[in-house]
Amino acid sequence: MVTAGIAREQGFALNALTIDYNQRHRRELESAKQIAGELGTDRHVVLPLDLRAFGGSALTADIDVPKDGVGEDIPVTYVPARNLVFLSLTLAWAEAIGARDIFIGVNALDYSGYPDCRPEFIQGFADLARLATKAGAQGGEFTIHAPLQYLGKAEIVSEAYRIGLDPAVSWSCYDPMPDGTACGQCDSCRLRLEGFSKAGREDPLSYA
């Protein structure tokens, strides 16, 4: 949400891509649709891609989401090569519509240690985009923007309010409760709550 808000602030027209990969936290799909509407995207595509067929993650298989705090190891909520898959699909759509700027909300400070959030990955994909596309072969360049890359969660929360976005429509929890509330214990909830606390703000989401 914040990444898209920054792109809009910089004068870009927005085309939003959401991947419905049959994730455990499907509540985020509803949030994405609401955010796309409020940000005034030119188009919002929800693309089905059932990664449960692969499994290998607590978000795509019958593996418990850890609730014991953010550790140093890559957690089981890591979805194999997820951001690589997502960016590849985004690149394909960008080339199809003639767009050359791709925005992604990865963060390498307050995060769970996923390898596909690192700056080296973003730079590597930018190089790959040039090699993998007709546009690149013809001298075109794709720019991968990661405006949240070096921001802490508190700074991201502050950016949301500065831009005038409503955090209540965003979603972070990996393991929503049956009543629709966020669990409050998964890595994503813990990092989000810490960010709001450090920013001196109250998270408007409801937690179990």
UniProtKB/TrEMBL annotation:
Catalytic reactions on record: 7-carboxy-7-carbaguanine + NH4(+) + 2 ATP = 7-cyano-7-carbaguanine + 2 AMP + 2 diphosphate + 2 H(+)
Record carries keyword Ligase: yes
Cross-referenced Gene3D superfamilies: HUPs
CDD domains named in the record: QueC-like
Source taxon at top rank: Bacteria
Keywords in alphabetical order: ATP-binding, Ligase, Metal-binding, Nucleotide-binding, Queuosine biosynthesis, Zinc
Pathway in which the depicted protein is active: Purine metabolism; 7-cyano-7-deazaguanine biosynthesis
One protein family per Pfam: QueC
Entry EC number(s): 6.3.4.20
Residues that, per the record, bind Zn(2+): 173, 183, 186, 189
Gene Ontology molecular function terms on file: ATP binding; ligase activity, forming carbon-nitrogen bonds; zinc ion binding
Full protein name: 7-cyano-7-deazaguanine synthase
Organism for this UniProt entry: Croceicoccus pelagius
Gene name per UniProt: queC
